Amino acid sequence: MAISLGSIADDYTGASDLANTLTKNGLRTVQTVGIPDPSLALPDIDAVVVSLKIRSVPASEAVNAATKAERWLRQQGAGHVLYKICSTFDSTDAGNIGPVTEALSEAAGGGGVLVTPAFPETGRTVYLGHLFVGGQPLNESPLKDHPLNPMHDANLVRVLARQSRGTVGLIDLPAIAAGAAAAKAKLDALARTGATMAIADAIFERDLETLGEIALETPVSTGASGLGLGLARALVRSGRISGSATGEDVIRPVGGLSAIIAGSCSKATLRQIDVAERVMPVLRLDPERLLAAGPDQIAAAISWAGDRISAGPVVVAASAAPETVSRLQSQYGREASGHAIETATSIIAAELVERGVRRLVVAGGETSGAAVDKLAIPAFLIGPEIAPGVPVLRTVGNAQGDMLLALKSGNFGGEDFFTAALAMMQ
Ligand SMILES: Nc1ncnc2c1ncn2[C@@H]1O[C@H](COP(=O)(O)OP(=O)(O)OP(=O)(O)O)[C@@H](O)[C@H]1O
Ligand SMILES: O=C(O)[C@@H](O)C(=O)CO
Questions:
Q1: 6 CB under 6 A from ligand 1?
Q2: CATH 3.40.980.20 residue spans of the chain
């Protein structure tokens, strides 16, 4: 297996999102869960996206895991490694975008690193270093209420600088509109002044194509799926990759029962649960009782779902509105409550698979990571897109045999996402 592009994703839904973008742009792509065992048989591929769960862990843990994955990707032939972060720059002043980017850059010999979360297809644009989500500045968007890393500053140069050792520059839109050579010269000039990273503006896909061309000349970049699009198109344009891949021939029916597990508390996911409730049973977990009497609540949820899944799909959701989330966090702590709920939802997911579920939708990055780890799935092949940023995934090398999953980023998908996903997962 000699790949052209490697990526390290800081959560599993982000990995899935990027793998979808790379596949749509012609790269034969596999998403692995961590560094795969050498015995795992993988097809001939152009790109590997290594899913890690390092967005909300201590920076030292994130750096350690990412640098190991980078070494493995270089051994597989990757000339460029993209650190895939959230298009809404999910992070705190402790990291982990800055610490991991600096560590990957140092491992690759230093030099300026392009950083951009722009992903216009999902309404993420960057202008003068400020991130807009669907037209709202980041700090005025629903991301201000994120359970784990609420975003209160749209100026990414400031946000990244607060979590980094080095200085952070800006490559503004006029520099990018002037073309790849001009933008690369700006990146190199910033590096000479000591700026180890540069936030890059991007509004349209053409800006991302320019950034992808520049990034490919460097060993490391950091960004969301938009930068992945730019890198993929630059690789195909260079002739190094045929660009013939599609996700259409990957998915075959797996049968079995289906279920949806939701841990995301995003506005989009809350709406998707409400819409799904019109056509399928929904169990809304009581997080306070889940934290106070976890085993009993988990057993009750498994029994509830187990009684219904033979008749059709069900939703088991921990998701709640911001004010409810805040109340729980003030009582039990942000990280402790998040981790406890992820653990609970992962146990429920695994128990439903034991009861015959082979088509599973999980909403939320951390929630997906916990569930996929609990199921011990080593890798995924990438199928067709359900909604921007969310493909159908087919498991590879897992004990349960062929399964289809959709790992939905919290903010992604239309209001009918759950029924649309299951309609594509037979
Ligand atoms: N009712 C709740 N109260 C407090 N925390 C909750 C509740 N329900 C879920 N959580 C926690 O909120 C966090 C949601 O994070 P997750 O990454 O799964 O979703 P997301 O951030 O919306 O998705 P993505 O990262 O893909 O955008 C998890 O740690 C989950 O355990
Ligand atoms: O880029 C995004 O918004 C998603 O891929 C994501 O990171 C979800 O956690």
A1: no
A2: 250-423
Q: What is the pTM of this model?
A: 0.96
Q: Which atom of ligand 1 is nearest to the CA of 266?
A: 22
In the three-class reduction of DSSP (H, G, I as helix; E, B as strand; rest coil), residue 83 is classed as: strand
Q: Is residue 208 exposed (0-12), middle (13-18) or buried (19+ Cβ within 10 Å)?
A: buried
The 8 Å CB, 24+ separation contacts for 296-302 are 297/344, 298/344, 298/347, 298/348, 301/344, 301/348, 302/347, 302/348, 302/351, 302/352
Asked whether the CA dihedral 16, 31, 70, 147 is positive or negative, the reply is positive
| Contact in structure between 200 and 171 (CB atoms under 8 Å) | yes
Query: So what's the architecture of 5-237 in CATH?
Result: 3-Layer(aba) Sandwich (3.40)
14 CB within 6 A, ligand 2: yes
Ligand showing the shortest atom-to-Cα distance for residue 150: 1
Q: What is the residue whose two structure tokens read 């509830």?
A: 304
The CATH 3.40.50.10840 domain(s) of the chain lie at 5-237
Cβ(254)–Cβ(393) below 8 Å: no
The ligand that comes nearest to the alpha carbon of residue 335 is 1
DSSP 8-state class, residue 36: P
ipTM: 0.98
Quickly state the pLDDT bin for 1 (edges 50, 70, 90): low
Q: How far is the CA of 315 from the centre of ligand 2 (A)?
A: 22
Check if 263 has its Cβ closer than 6 Å to any atom of ligand 1: yes
Q: Do residues 185 and 210 lie in contact, with contact meaning Cβ atoms separated by under 8 Å?
A: no
Cβ neighbours of residue 218 closer than 8 Å, sequence gap 6 or more:
80, 111, 112, 113, 114, 187
223 lines ligand 2 (CB under 6 A): no
* Residue of 122, 264, 372 to mutate, ligand 1, most atoms within 8 A of C-beta: 264
Residue 49 near ligand 1, beta carbon < 6 Å: no
What CATH code is assigned to 250-423? Answer: 3.40.980.20
Q: If pLDDT is split at 50, 70 and 90, which confidence band does 187 have?
A: very high
